[in-house]
């Protein structure tokens, strides 16, 4: 049964608890408490969302026929079971902490031969970024509908914006990203062979273009448009971003 396959790890619960603790601190009428709270909301919340992103991949694969994800520990939401916890958790957290783009984490290995159909393969790839989008929508809905102090609202808004950026980034059809994984099952043999060769370096080229060329402006413009479309508050997000980066 699905419920017996999912085992939530204490480490994941600790990440959630750190995020909640940050939310409590952000409600205090004190600059140090607010700043600390926003930092915990963003870092704890981002680490939590990375786990949920990978869980989305794994759970969809499990339902689609790859039962090996259970024995690999991917259904526990425990980042210690990921293929490379440093690249999957530590590096994305570091990039967010220094004000960079929210990097995707290549964390779970899926046995694509066990998946029933090409449609299932596509859904496995899409499950991760769609998890980020759902989290972004949910967070913005909470900020809009629940009265809260500005510190808490700004921290949650910035975290929501990071989720939207992660969705836009991951959904791009670039080898090595989830958007490409969604279309890969439908490509011709030669196209898939080229994608395999490009997978190690294509994301690095994309990140360099985003950070060092006008393409970055377009990327963030699209992300802001989507964030606005799902109800994001640009003012609170800017406050949360500045509060978080002041800590650095």
UniProtKB/TrEMBL annotation:
Listed name of the protein: Peptidase M50
Gene Ontology MF annotations: metal ion binding; metallopeptidase activity
Entry GO CC: plasma membrane
Protein's organism: Saccharopolyspora erythraea (strain ATCC 11635 / DSM 40517 / JCM 4748 / NBRC 13426 / NCIMB 8594 / NRRL 2338)
Cellular compartments annotated: Cell membrane
The entry's keywords: Cell membrane, Hydrolase, Membrane, Metal-binding, Metalloprotease, Protease, Transmembrane, Transmembrane helix, Zinc
UniProt record similarity statement: Belongs to the peptidase M50B family.
GO biological process: proteolysis
Membrane topology: Multi-pass membrane protein
């Amino acid at each position: 049964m699905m419920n017996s396959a999912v085992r939530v790890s204490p480490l994941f619960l600790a990440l959630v608890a750190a995020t909640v603790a940050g939310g409590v601190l952000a409600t205090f009428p004190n600059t140090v408490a607010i700043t600390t709270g926003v930092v915990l909301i963003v870092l704890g919340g981002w680490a939590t969302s990375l786990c949920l992103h990978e869980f989305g991949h794994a759970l969809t694969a499990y339902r689609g026929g790859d039962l090996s994800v259970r024995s690999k520990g991917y259904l526990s939401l425990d980042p210690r079971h990921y293929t490379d916890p440093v690249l999957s958790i530590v590096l994305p957290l570091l990039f967010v902490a220094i004000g960079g783009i929210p990097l995707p984490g290549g964390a779970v290995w899926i046995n694509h031969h066990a998946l029933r159909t090409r449609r299932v393969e596509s859904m496995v790839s899409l499950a991760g970024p769609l998890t980020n989008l759902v989290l972004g929508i949910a967070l913005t809905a909470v900020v809009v509908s629940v009265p809260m102090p500005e510190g808490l609202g700004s921290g949650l808004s910035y975290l929501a914006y990071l989720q939207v950026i992660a969705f836009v980034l991951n959904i791009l059809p670039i080898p090595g990203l989830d958007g490409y994984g969604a279309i890969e099952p439908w490509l011709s043999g030669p196209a898939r062979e080229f994608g395999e060769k490009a997978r190690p370096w294509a994301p690095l080229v994309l990140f360099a273009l985003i950070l060092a060329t006008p393409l970055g402006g377009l990327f963030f413009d699209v992300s802001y448009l989507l964030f606005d479309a799902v109800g994001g508050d640009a003012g609170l997000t800017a406050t949360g971003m500045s509060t978080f980066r002041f800590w650095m």
